[in-house]
Every structure is written in C-alpha cells, then in structure tokens.
Amino acid sequence: MKRNFKKSFLIIGMFLTLFILLLTINLLFFKNTSFLFSGLITSLVFIIISYIYGYERKKKRFLYEVMFYIFFYPTIYVILTYLIGIVSGFNYSVYSLSFNTLLKTILPYILVIVSGELLRKEVTTKCPGSAINYILLVISLVLVDATLFLTTFDINTGDGVIKFVCNIVMPSVSKNIFLVYISTIAGLAPTIIYRFIMELKMFIIPIVPDFGLYIDSVLSTAYPAILGLIIFISLKQYQNKEVEGKSIQDSKLFTYSIMIVLFLLLTVLVSLTSCKFKYAAIAIGSGSMTGTFNKGDVIIYKAIGDYNPVLDDILVFRKDGKIIVHRIIEVVDIGNDEYIYYTKGDANPTPDGYPLQREDLVGIYKAKIPYLGVPSVYLGEMISNKK
Fold first, then answer.
1. How, if at all, do strands 207-209 and 279-283 pair?
2. SS3 content of the chain, % helix, strand, coil (to 5)
3. How many structural domains does the chain have?
4. pTM (two decimals)
5. pLDDT tens string 268-295
C-alpha cells in the first residue's frame, strides 16, 4: 500500500513538473495569455490525473464551518474595500459587462477557476501531506496566474518586473498556499466560492477601488494569509467529533443564511457605489456641510437625469476631478433652457468661487446615513497619504 502511495506521489509529481515546464515555455517563448488556453491546459492535467487514479467525491469534515468563513470574510472584505473606495476613489474596470465579455472572458476565466480547483482537490486528495507535490502544485497555479496577467505590466523594464512580482506573483503565491490549506480541510466547494468572490468581481463590477499599486499589493498578499490564520484558529473548537456532530446542521443553516444576507448587502453596496443606477452613495470627507451632514456620514443621492436643480437644492457635482456636495445659493438662467449654478458649503464662510454648468452636475442629495462612512473616510485618508 505504501509503495502504491509513493508511486502515485511520484507520477502526480511528474505530471505537475511537466505542467510547470509547459507553462514556463509558454511564458518565455509563446506568451499565449488567453484565459481559454490556461483553462484548457489545466483541465487536461486534471483529467489525466483523475483518469489514472479515479475521481473521489469525499466530503470533508469541516466543509460547512469553512464555507461560512470563506463566504463571510471575503464578502466583508469586498464591502469594506468599496466603502473605502468612496473616499480614495475608483477606477473604471478594463472589462465591460456584456454578452461578448461573457463569452470571451468570463466563461473562459470560470473554466480557469474550476479546472484549477479540481486539480488542487485531486492533488491534495491523492497526495495527502506530500510537501513536494503541494509545492509543485502552488508553483504551477502561480504560473497560470502569471500567464493570465502577463501583459498587465511591461516586464521588459526593471520597474515593470518589480510591479509584476509584487502585484501578480506574490498575491498569487499567498492565495494558492491558502487554498491548498482550505482544500485539504474542506474540499472543493469553498475554494471555488472564494475565487468566485475575489476574482470574478473585476469582470462584473464596472469600478474598482483606487488604492494605488503598493496598497493593492499589500492587501492582496496579506489577506489570504490572515484569513487562513483566522480559520485555523477558529476550527480548533471543532476538533472534538461530538461537538462537530451536534453542530453540523446548525452550521449548514447558519452558513446559508449568512451567505444570502451578505450577498444582498453586497448587491446593494455595488449598486450604490458603481454610480450606474438611479441612486448612488458617497461618504462625506470634509466638514464643509457640517450641520446638514457631517464628515464621515454617507449620503444617498439621485442621479441628475433630466432634473433642473432649483435654489436651496443640495447638489452633488464634479470639479477638478473631485466629487463635491454643496448647496445651491444662486441659479442664473442664460437662455435656451440652460442654467448656471453657484454653490456654497453650509459651514463655509464664503461661496464657492466658480460657476457650474450642466455637464458638472452628478446628482441631488436625498438622504444621509450618519457615521456609516467614518471608517472608510479615515482609512481612505491614510491610503491617500501613502500613495
């Protein structure tokens, strides 16, 4: 039996080594960065290994406990980053959500995720505790990520190589080590869900928080390691089988309930921060309107649409690349149904020193949520200072 295990370890290790070699040759010479290519070649390695040794559907002991952590913490992470983005700013995603994007980008990337996690599950199941094969697996899947995002930075320059290593390679190493751990204790489903939450958002959500490359690198690298540590410490309470047996049904119900609630919260947040819908939200980052709303409040505003603002409306407008929320103190009719607007912050001693035209207007203030934006405002200020 031990010989068979050693033989399977060696053969799987051989396939992973060939996989690494093929990916390296592609990176050095062919530079095929298509999602479909990476998904198909990863699927091929998985199919070969599962054909030789069979595919096992084995439920892991901590599946439902880990599912809760995998859905809860990444969803909270996404929510917090977008709340901070209200202050630090957003960049538009390079991907547009359309049928063409679905066919050419999203579906191939889903293939990359599913095939990669099936391969991870096979290796961790067939080679339990094999450090060498785990290392080969991590290297191969890091190379897959490097292939997918090879053109993100200009790797022909020293600066580009450093950015590529810090923003692509290091986060990928951290993510893949974390997912190997999750796969060994909870199986396939949590690893796929984690990647869906953390990676598919770049194709679906039209904006991404602008933290700068340095902060992005630190967050992307540190987060999987921190989450892995949280899960490891938390699962200590389930080491006793009796405790797990009594809690499993409660864990399933609690996990699914939390997943539904967080999904709804995330949907609302993305709808408000994306500015693609009728209503949107922004955190107040200054004290110029103190008394009406304060620094750290989140306001809800309605897109300007065809509405013509009137005197005393609280206007959301864009000036010099910044979003400002001030009250209209004068409206000037310049004819042809066109107007110029003058504004002032309620707490400012003097009016704003510039006229606003229709193209500057973003929306009209409708409601506020006190203090909701306090963490994002101060974290955003810290991030802006470090850019």
1. unpaired
2. 60, 15, 25
3. 2
4. 0.71
5. 665 565 555 678 888 888 899 999 999 9
Rounded Cα distance, 169 and 152, in Å: 12
Asked whether residue 293 falls in the same domain as residue 352, the answer is yes
The b-or-e profile of 315-326 (16+ CB within 10 A means b, else e) is: bbbeeeeebbbb
Quote the longest CA-to-CA distance of the chain. 90
How many Cβ atoms from other residues are within 10 Å of residue 269's Cβ? 19
Q: What sections of 200-277 are H helices per DSSP? A: 201-204, 213-234, 241-273
Angular region, 273: left φ>0, alpha ψ -120 to 50, beta rest: alpha
* C-alpha separations of 232 from 100, 181, 239 in Å: 41, 9, 11
Take residue 24 and report the two structure tokens written for it: 């390296």
| Model confidence pLDDT, tens digit, residues 220-257 | 988 898 899 888 888 876 655 444 444 544 555 665 66
Domain residues for 357? 279-386
Instruction: Say how far apart CA 123 and CA 117 lie, in whole Å.
Output: 10
Extended beta strands in 262-313, E state:
279-283, 298-303
Q: Are residues 267 and 324 in the same domain?
A: no
Indicate the length of the chain as a whole number: 387
CA angle in degrees (0–180, nearest 5) for 363-287-359: 25
Identify whether residues 194 and 308 lie together within a single domain: no
